[in-house]
Specification:
Elements (H helix, E strand, L loop, with lengths): L25 H11 L5 E2 L14 H9 L14 H14 L9 E4 L1 H13 L5 E6 L4 H8 L3 E8 L5 E2 L1 H7 L4 E7 L11 H14 L2 E5 L23 E7 L12 E7 L5 H13 L5 H4 L2 H6 L4 H5 L4 H14 L4 E2 L8 E2 L2 E2 L9 H12 L1 E2 L1 E2 L11 E4 L4 H17 L3
Parallel strand pairs: 1-13, 3-4, 3-6, 6-7, 7-8
Antiparallel strand pairs: 2-9, 4-5, 8-9, 10-12, 11-15, 14-15
Helix pairs in contact: 1-13, 4-5, 4-8, 12-14
């Protein structure tokens, strides 16, 4: 085909030049290429329950099917009444005060809502405090909206809890919000109430919005307790994110919500802007919205899975125990969520960094993980393991990690 030289190449937006999403990045692309060539890859890179036989509860699917005839048209741009009402009632259970049905926005999963809420909030150069390591969509979405992500330290030596002094030192006149992720992806941390209280009080003293990612709020181990940060200080404008993806294993349904609470009187203009963006995308996926009331009001099967004899609990403990038994590897026992975030002592092994380790593990032993640097962590010596696979698969994967390490031992 002839190319007319007078036309410049069609290029991506400059805003995308430095943006990444490592969970589906170049190493993921290499794994896909290998799978397409017929190779069998153990995929432990993404928190996607269904491929591992962890399915949506039948009653949620049943109610979606029963309501499918009513789900053919657009819904209200904030979401159907029953879904928003159910989320509002859930805030009462959580102890988040004074939430009305109009304070609940339904979205196509939390991912869409993260992007939308930040687009509505940020002007060029506005800063958002984000944990390091983070769920990388937060960092990318801030940059995409024209803001500046500023990462605060989560301390591995202190169970990956946020470093409060570091947070305080990074607040500036441009700081618009602070992001909190608990239970945490990728570390498996669950922040104690006293830490969350201090973050909420700090936000109140500086007039900063708190954006709390609580998608794993029911996935808790060994008696660890999730405290909704929005229950701790009425003088802060809070945005609390949740959904069906993890607690109810419904990642493909794309049903999430954001709840506005606290100092809503300070956010009238912002909420108007967010409502405009919600209107522009017309509505969230309507069939999945009909599963929200059933999910929140029905039997909470996740509790069986995270109990000491439950499948997810056993898989998480097996993963952390086996990793800690390998020389040169260490990780915190998960307190919640679906992940461990091990550290590799690179002084003991011939790997350049975390990306090199993960790439070699994939190409030489056919196990797909995500390097820790993909979560905006400051060092190059961590990686994330998703422990959704059954124990046989996890044991096989960890056997292969151990084999690779022996091969590259200094």
């Amino acid at each position: 085909m002839l190319v007319n030289p007078k036309f410049a190449p069609i290029t991506k937006s400059d805003r995308l030049n430095n943006l990444t999403y490592a969970i589906r990045g170049p190493i993921f692309d290499k794994a896909h290429e290998m799978q397409m060539s017929g190779q069998n890859i153990i995929n432990l890179n993404i928190g996607n329950p269904a491929p591992f036989g962890l399915y949506v509860p039948d009653e949620i699917v049943h109610d979606m099917i029963l309501n499918i005839q009513d789900a053919q048209g657009y819904s209200h741009h904030l979401g159907i009444f029953s879904a928003r009402k159910a989320v509002m009632h859930y805030t009462q259970e959580l102890g988040i005060p004074n939430v009305t049905i109009d304070d609940v926005f339904i979205g196509n999963g939390v991912s869409e809502l993260i992007v939308m809420t930040l687009q509505a909030m940020l002007n060029e150069g506005d800063e958002v405090l984000i944990p390091s390591p983070d769920y990388p969509l937060w960092t990318t979405a801030v940059s995409l909206a024209g803001g500046k992500p500023v990462h605060y330290i989560c301390d591995e030596a202190n169970d990956w809890n946020p470093d409060l002094k570091d947070i305080e030192s990074k607040v500036s006149s441009r700081t618009k919000a602070i992001v909190v992720i608990s239970p945490n992806n990728p570390t498996g941390a669950v922040y104690p109430k006293i830490i969350l209280q201090k973050i909420a009080d700090l936000a109140a003293s500086h007039g900063i919005t708190v954006m709390s990612d609580e998608i794993y709020d029911k996935i808790l181990f060994d008696g660890n307790i999730h405290t909704p940060i929005a229950s701790l200080n009425d003088d802060v404008f809070f945005m609390t994110f949740g959904g069906l993806s993890k607690n109810y294993r419904a990642t493909g349904f794309r049903a999430g919500w954001v709840i506005m609470s606290g100092a809503k009187h300070r956010a009238t203009s912002y909420i108007e802007g967010l409502t405009l963006l919600a209107s522009m995308r017309l509505c969230a996926n309507v069939p999945a919205q009909y599963g929200i009331q059933t999910a929140l009001g029905g039997y909470q099967s996740i509790q069986d899975l995270v109990a000491p004899k439950g499948r997810i609990y056993r898989q998480g403990m097996l993963t952390s125990d086996r990793i800690n038994a390998i020389p040169g590897l260490s990780c915190m026992k998960p307190k919640g969520a679906l992940y461990v975030f091990p550290k590799i002592d690179l002084s003991q092994y011939n790997f350049a960094d975390d990306n090199d380790f993960v790439y070699k593990l994939l190409t030489e032993h056919k196990v797909l993980l995500v390097p820790g640097s993909g979560f905006n962590h400051r060092d190059k010596a961590h990686f994330r393991i998703v422990f959704l696979a059954d124990t046989d698969i996890l044991n096989t994967a960890i056997d292969r990690i151990e084999s690779l390490l022996k091969e590259y031992k200094k």
